[in-house]
Hints:
The complex is a heterodimer.
Chain A: H1 2-10, H2 17-31, H3 35-99, H4 106-130, E1 138-141, H5 142-156, E2 162-166, E3 175-178, H6 180-197, E4 203-212, E5 215-222, H7 229-232, H8 250-260, E6 264-270, E7 274-282
Parallel strand pairs in A: 2-4
Antiparallel strand pairs in A: 1-3, 4-5, 5-7, 6-7
Helix pairs in contact in A: 1-3, 2-3, 3-4, 5-6, 6-8
Chain B: E1 5-9, H1 13-25, E2 29-33, H2 36-46, E3 50-54, H3 62-72, E4 78-82, H4 95-105, E5 110-113, H5 118-131
Parallel strand pairs in B: 1-2, 1-3, 3-4, 4-5
Helix pairs in contact in B: 2-3
Amino acid sequence: MLMIITIISVIVATNVITWLVLSSQTNTKNVIDDKDNAQNLMSRDTMIVSQGIRLGEQQVELDDALRLSGLGSLAATVAHELRNPLGVIRTAIYNIRRKNKNPDILSHLDNIDKKIMESDRIINNLLNYARIKTPQFEQVDLLTLLKETIINAGKKYEKHSIQLTSNLDTIKKLFVEADPVQLQEIFGNVLDNAYQSIDSSTGIIIINVAQKGAMLSIDIQDNGIGIEIEDIKAIFKPFFTKKSKGNGLGLTLCLELLHLHHGKIKVHSKPGKGSTFTITLPVSQNDK
Amino acid sequence: MTNNTILIIDDDKELVEEITEILTFEGYQVLSAHTGDTGLVLFKSCQPRLVLLDMKLPGISGIKLISIFKSLQPNTPIIMISGRPVYSPLCKQDKIEHNLEEQRLKMVDLFMNKPFAVEHLISSIDRLFNKTP
């Protein structure tokens, strides 16, 4: 009983669990002479440790939920606080325009109006980012989900003459334990970036899916403008963007969602040649 | 003489100043309060034809004032102006409180998110004025 209490009190930091396993085994070897008793104690220790690990996992899930709700509250507060002064500026501009007799001032007022609306859009994007919830895991047909995402992106960029190829038809079935809405968000964002990076008429996007043991990897490769070496580290940071209409939250969102799925995202890029984003995901959340 | 008084309750003094000027120019008589409590006193004493109400206020909150105003004068339109995101999952962290807020917000005649277009505010006030005697 004493041991259980000790373990529960320590598992808040999940990385301490390994230490607990080692110390309990050492004690068993040194103190217990009777083999049966030793075995009983070992199996009890294993049970306690497995309970400890489960509690550790629950703690991680709880930490994620708390962090996300904290992020949501922060974003809501920031949005509220920023929308108030923006409201005053917009109303004041209306009054200046009404009283203004000088036509030279009008273009400046138009510019202020545009920037107010731009700021409002940034606030909305921040709110969308903050609405990330802990994933609702289910068995997802990855091939169908990817095909749907590709079709949606194709419709969005139908004016672009970009050729998209994939190896999806060569794979029979591929299921993954994930939140389908969040997965679509991840693939949609990376695919958006691929389309937006291509400005030539000979654009190519290649999607490759492969299973390596308990992990899945999805490569999304483009022959777009690529990413400068000094920008590579910054692309996952909030609000970093080089696009005129980008909000700099797409890849941050992907990184956050993949963290919740115990997956990863990596990028290889050559300026002027294109980029490859590699997303890796565990097939099952038990294999993470 | 017809009542054309609008009561603005918002703790942002600059916003109240700007809106007061616009609505006065549009021909309305404007009263203003920067706290919920003063707003309630003015509502009772002056019986405005319409109320522009902020959600977050010092003293009695804008949300509470909705139900108080509607119980005192059910036909007086209320336009809620706020920077706070409404009807988003963010507001559902405390379910009981959220449900209560949602019920009160449904009593509002119009909800406008800051920064709103002034033209939209003016046309909405005109429309709500024409509805009430």
